[in-house]
Amino acid sequence: MIRLLPGVATLVAKTLRLKIKGGLPDRCIVIFWHGKMFAGWYSLTIPKQLLATFQPVALVSASKDGDILTGVMQRWGYKVERGSSSKSGLAALERAIARVRKGECRRIVITPDGPRGPIHRLKRGAFLAAQELQLPIYFLRIHYRRAKTLEKSWDKFEIPMPFSSVHIKVEKIDMSGFPNEMHAQHEWLNRLASEMNL
After folding, report:
1. Contact 114, 84 (CB under 8 A)
2. How deeply is 15 buried, as exposed, middle or buried, from its count of CB atoms within 10 A (0-12, 13-18, 19+)?
3. Is pLDDT of 1 > 90?
4. Has residue 189 got a pLDDT over 80?
5. Is the entire prediction scored with pTM above 0.70?
6. Are the CB atoms for 123 and 158 separated by under 8 Å?
7. 167 pairs with which residues across the strands?
8. Predicted pLDDT of residue 88
9. Is residue 8 pLDDT above 60, yes or no?
């Protein structure tokens, strides 16, 4: 059954009616909440969409759930770097940054509250990558017209219903005030998360 999931996910994704407001430059960092990852991942790989055309590299958990997600991501054309939220996560981020430096990929895509939460709390990885590569960072605000919410999952994961409309608003994040000291970074990210959740 697990081996069928990439195909099933792709079939559902192809029925979605994406309505995208805004666009992305070819080189950037992209983030969206873990619970919205279905449309988030897919929207960046669709030919002829405003968000698409450049192969991205994604950071995916080293967990068993990450194994399933990796199968879907690779089917959708992503390069994938695996890591947890600990040291292996930092190593995965460094490998993703190296891919961009080498020109293998032009975007890094991250769910900044993953892989284990807390929900809608920003971790530093995407912002460190943006700082390191001197690239802009964008948030995809995603809303499904019809979706099934997995209430028992930590991220309240949403599975869009086939043929559902999906509204995606592209928002550029102002990195000008991002501090250098770790404690200050966490405070800055907490304030930003509060603003993003309004």
Report:
1. no
2. exposed
3. no
4. yes
5. yes
6. no
7. 19, 143
8. 66
9. yes
| Burial of residue 60 (number of CB atoms within 10 Å: 0-12, 13-18, 19+) | buried
Residue 84 has pLDDT above 80, yes or no: no
Give the C-alpha separation, 158 to 186, whole Å. Answer: 27
Residue 185 contacts by C-beta under 8 Å, 6 or more apart in sequence?
A: 124, 127, 178, 179
Q: Which two tokens stand for residue 148?
A: 């099934």
The arithmetic mean of pLDDT across residues 118-137, rounded, is 96
Type of residue numbered 49: Q
Contact 138, 28 (CB under 8 A): yes
CA-only gyration radius of the chain, Å: 16
Token digits of residue 122: 């920003």
Q: Is the pLDDT at 48 greater than 50, yes or no?
A: no
Instruction: Tokens for 135, please give them.
Output: 């690239």
Q: How many C-beta atoms lie closer than 10 Å to residue 97's C-beta? A: 20
Other Cβ atoms within 10 Å of 198 Cβ, number: 4
